[in-house]
Design a protein that fits this description.
- There is one protein chain.
- With 693 residues, the protein is an alpha+beta fold.
- It folds into 5 domains: 279 residues, Rossmann fold, CATH 3.40.50; 111 residues, Translation factors (Elongation Factor Tu (Ef-tu), domain 3); 69 residues, Elongation Factor G (Translational Gtpase), domain 3 (Alpha-Beta Plaits, 2-Layer Sandwich), CATH 3.30.70.870; 112 residues, Ribosomal Protein S5, domain 2, CATH 3.30.230; 92 residues, Alpha-Beta Plaits (2-Layer Sandwich), CATH 3.30.70.240.
- It is 28% helix and 33% strand.
- The strands form 8 sheets. An 8-stranded antiparallel β-sheet has the order 18-17-23-14-15-22-19-20. The chain has a 7-stranded mixed β-sheet with strand order 2-3-1-4-5-11-6, with helices on both faces. Strands 29, 34, 35, 36 and 37 form a 5-stranded antiparallel β-sheet that branches.
- α7 crosses α8 and α7 crosses α9.
- The longest helix has 18 residues.
Length: 693
């Protein structure tokens, strides 16, 4: 593929609800443009963009893939993103690298939560959007219903530019509202035909002349001169319509709607034409605000003669070919064997081999100009890094990813594989910034955090399939604690005689509640009842003892110990004997001081649609939560509920929230403090965690 100027490149992310036809649309665009010589199918596992074993098995996208095509005078980079909410991090990467987002909407199921998520993410990043209504060949598809939905849910920016003409529940032609021409398909080729009659339009539920008028009205809003021309009654030229929609997309006031069938390919060539005419190249939309080494803001324009700057938006950890870094070039040009500055770390790196991708197929490239997307092989950079020429060191803002909230404990199936898991997870965390893997010191478990059950399955599958290490997962243990409720004074006496020197240590210790998480040790011994040189041994014995409580073996908090008396033997007393005596006193003191179990309580902030607030309040009550308040969220139609909930009740909350809100809900949850465990739950916790005396 030849090198293209930044004015002749289109970077397009394809996003939307899972199952809305993103990968099939990618396949259709590649095939129709001549980039591929066959039309792959998801059911056959032979599409260009879903090529990993996980994707072929699941029959859905798990990763954002890169492919490209040539149409007219443009190179188009396609970023096919997953629609499943568990893989939202991949969608973030694809949309961040794009210049425009095609949002697929099934003609059968219409606007879904994933449609809104893709649209919101695109708008948050300032990306122009276009809706593509798919699956029009399905018997249950209804374009009019979908168009009505789009207008109702996304407002007056929605502007149809290609619509189907339907007669007897079948598509007979498509109307391009910009050209004001109709096309029918004969042997897969578009042939101009008559515009639909008024009678046909009435039966479809939308009038073509009314839609043409709506397009003109939308275009009139983009420019003062066009506004005056529209209201003077003059018709727009085709160029004025095209330029107006193009301008409206760039400014975010127009979201065009087109439609296709990816199976019989009708409408796909018309979409390619709209990509040519309407979607912005990097030269128009890729100016970035960076930060210099002095912390000053600087605008980086998409100019090839400027110093090179680029952003790593995705990483693939391939154990066979090494690290693959997906890079968007924002200025200058990137070439192999060039030394660049990693502005994120301050280090100097050498650019290795550069390739572009057609799914899994690698194609060598000599250089990547500004506006283009390329993959660097075996380069020591990570996702969110900025690389640049030393002549202008600038750093771009990192992408923001959803936080992983679905937590499971992980352990190796084979003894000795723990180090393999750590090494593999380090590689996977470089690749996926929505997973986390770390030790929970309070339970001594390794905790894997992901975005959901499917995401967890994918990570576990990668560990086994790619890195050769099998793991088992389980619900994480709850880090309960133990404490006391009253003050007691007890004796701990250790005496042992077995020939020769014996062992003797005797202490009296007062135990009382306090507010410290750590043991507080004091001594108030008078008259040398316990020599000072044994005080450290007593403290050490207590410090070791508080690691296990007497109820269920959990660490003890809120405990103050005061050594007040004791006795010793001039020959048989030793540090070990006094450690043992302190341990005996601890166990007896804990039993007498009314020990209780404490459970961790977390602070919850959960955002749900307004319609789900009642259900969520009820759910939190069932989970022993205390609702502290409700606040209107920044996003319209959403409410924030603030509550405190025991951590033991949160294991399945991620899945419950997704099911209740159809994926719209999000939450954060952090440990806040400990509180006494309700009496009716104590016996069960003790039974599951009881320790031998």
């Amino acid at each position: 593929m030849k090198k293209y100027d930044s004015t002749k490149i289109k970077n397009i992310a394809i996003a939307g609800q899972a199952g809305s036809g993103k990968t099939s649309l990618t396949e259709a665009l590649l095939y129709k443009s001549g980039a591929t010589d066959r039309l792959g199918k998801i059911t056959d596992g032979n599409t260009v963009s879903d090529y990993t074993p996980d994707e072929i098995k699941r029959k859905c996208s798990v990763y954002t893939s890169l492919s490209s095509l040539e149409t007219g005078e443009f190179k188009v980079n396609l970023l096919d993103t997953p629609g499943m909410f568990d893989y939202e991090g991949e969608a973030v990467e694809g949309i961040a690298a794009s210049g425009c987002v095609l949002i697929t909407v099934s003609g059968k199921s219409g606007v879904r939560v994933g449609t809104h998520k893709a649209y919101d993410l695109a708008k948050k990043m300032g990306k122009p959007t276009m809706f593509v209504v798919t699956k029009l060949d399905d018997d249950n598809a209804n374009f009019n219903n979908v168009l009505t939905q789009l207008k109702a849910e996304f407002g007056p920016t929605v502007c149809p530019v290609v619509v189907p003409v339907i007669a007897d529940r079948k598509i007979v032609s498509y109307v391009n509202l910009i050209e004001m021409k109709a096309y029918k398909y004969e042997d897969g080729k578009a042939v101009e035909t008559d515009m639909p009659t008024a009678e046909v339009s009435e039966k479809m539920g939308y009038r073509i002349d009314g839609l043409i008028e709506a397009v003109s009205e939308a275009v009139a809003e983009t420019d003062e001169a066009l506004f005056e021309k529209f209201f003077s009654g003059e018709a727009f030229t085709q160029k004025e319509l095209t330029d107006g929609i193009h301008s409206g997309m760039n400014s975010g006031i127009i979201t065009p709607v087109t439609c296709v069938s990816s199976t019989d390919l009708s409408g796909v060539d018309m979409l390619l034409k709209e990509i040519d005419l309407l979607l912005p190249p990097p030269s128009e939309k890729d100016a970035m605000i960076g930060e210099t080494v002095d912390g000053e803001a600087v605008e980086v324009a998409c100019v090839e003669s400027d110093p090179m700057s680029a952003f790593v938006f995705k990483t693939v950890a391939d154990p066979f070919v090494g690290k693959m870094s997906y890079i968007k070039v924002f200025s200058g040009k990137l070439t192999p064997n060039k030394e660049v500055v990693n502005a994120t770390t301050g280090s100097t790196e050498k650019v290795g081999k550069l390739v572009t991708l057609q799914g899994k197929k690698q194609i060598d490239v000599a250089e990547a100009g500004c506006g283009d997307i390329v993959v660097a092989m075996k380069m020591n950079v990570n996702t969110n890094d900025t690389i640049c020429d030393s002549a202008r060191v600038v750093k771009f803002a990192p992408m923001t990813f959803p936080k992983p909230c679905y937590k499971m404990a992980v352990r190796a199936k084979k003894q000795g594989d723990e180090s393999k898991i750590s090494a593999a997870m380090t590689r996977l965390m470089e690749e996926d910034l929505t997973i986390d893997y770390k030790l929970d010191p309070s339970t001594n478990e390794m905790i894997l955090s992901t975005l959901g059950g499917l995401h967890l399955d994918s990570v576990v599958g990668r560990l086994a399939g790619t890195f050769g290490v099998e793991v088992e997962t389980s619900v994480p243990k709850i880090s309960y604690r133990e404490t006391i409720r009253k003050k007691v004074k007890v004796q701990g006496r250790h005496k042992k005689q077995s020939g020769g020197h014996g062992q003797y240590g005797d202490v009296w210790i007062e135990f009382e509640p306090c507010v410290s998480d750590d043991l507080i040790f004091e001594e108030k011994v008078f008259g040398g009842a316990v020599p000072k040189n044994f005080f450290p041994a007593v403290e050490k014995g207590l410090q070791e003892s508080v690691k296990k409580g007497v109820l269920a073996g959990f660490p003890v908090v809120g405990l103050k110990a005061i050594l007040v008396d004791g006795s010793y033997h001039p020959v048989d007393s030793s540090e070990m004997a006094f450690k043992m005596a302190a341990s005996i006193a601890y166990k007896e003191g804990m039993r007498q001081a009314e020990p209780v179990l404490l459970e961790p309580i977390g602070s919850l902030s959960v955002f749900v649609p307004d319609d789900n607030t009642g259900d969520m309040m009820g759910e939190l009550n069932k989970r022993r939560g205390r609702v502290l308040g409700m606040n209107p969220a920044e996003k319209k139609g959403m409410t924030e509920i603030v509550a405190e909930v025991p951590m033991a009740e949160m294991a399945d909350f991620t899945l419950l929230l997704r099911q209740m809100t159809q994926g719209q809900g999000v939450f954060t949850f952090e440990k806040a403090r400990y509180e006494p465990l309700p009496a009716n739950l104590v016996a069960d916790v003790i039974a599951k965690n009881a320790v031998a005396d």
